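Check the record.
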Amino acid sequence: MNTLSENEIAKIVLDVAFKIHSELGPGLFESVYETVLEFELRNKYNLGVQRQVAIPVVWEEVKLELGFRADMIVEHKVIVEIKSIEAIAPVHHKQLLTYLKLTGIKLGLLLNFNEELMKTGIKRIVNNL
């Protein structure tokens, strides 16, 4: 496992996201962007990447598997949620913040690849960072 900080990991993820968006453009399925992003992070940057990670809810000391899934967790430090939709809604911010709280991870990136310019599709969400 790398000793990169959350911000260093986020910079790599964003650099790769810009590259993917400039080469593939908007309008593809989320799974395409997720697969290419994982490939780049693993093979070019040697980062640990987990995809479709189950996020349990602990209620009264019981772990409940409720079907919440983070698209990607990089180096156990940054959650990446990938969208390819018309517009990011407030519920997407809340969902990512909840994932951060449930996992104890401090930084999340919400990436919407369906924007004309990638920079307008990036939202950074923090949890006590």
